[in-house]
Amino acid sequence: MNDTEFNQLADQALNTIEEMVDDSGADMDYETHGNVMTLEMDNRSQIIINKQEPMHEIWLASKSGGYHFSYQNEQWICSRSGRELLALVREECDKQSDEDIEWT
C-alpha cells in the first residue's frame, strides 16, 4: 500500500466514524484537525484517533489503552486484540460515555 492509498482508506474510516456518531444521537462531539480526530463525551472523557502515515496505521487511544490498526482483508484490524476498528470505537464510546448508545 502506498501513502495515497493509505490516506484514502484511513479518511474513509474516519468519515465512517463521524457518520456513526451523527447517526447514534449520542451526547458526543467530534473534531478533526489534520490527522487527529477527537471524540469527546458529554462527561468530558475523550477518545483520540489518529492516522500514522509512516506506519500506514490508525491509532486509537482511550481509557482502556492504546490500539494500532492496520488494513487487512478490507478492514482495519488491531494488531494487539484482533478487533476491527469500528467495533472497538463503538465499544470504547459505550464505556467512556456512561450511556447506552444506539449504534445503527
From TrEMBL:
Cellular component terms per the entry's GO annotation: cytosol
Signal peptide: none
GO molecular function, one term: ferrous iron binding
Keyword terms: Iron, Metal-binding
One Pfam family named in its UniProt record: Frataxin_Cyay
UniProt cross-references to InterPro entries, sorted A to Z: CyaY, Frataxin/CyaY, Frataxin/CyaY_sf, Frataxin_CS
Swiss-Prot/TrEMBL GO biological process terms: iron-sulfur cluster assembly
The protein's role, per its UniProt record: Involved in iron-sulfur (Fe-S) cluster assembly. May act as a regulator of Fe-S biogenesis.
Similarity annotation: Belongs to the frataxin family.
Protein name, per record: Iron-sulfur cluster assembly protein CyaY
Taxonomy of the source species: Bacteria, Pseudomonadati, Pseudomonadota, Gammaproteobacteria, Vibrionales
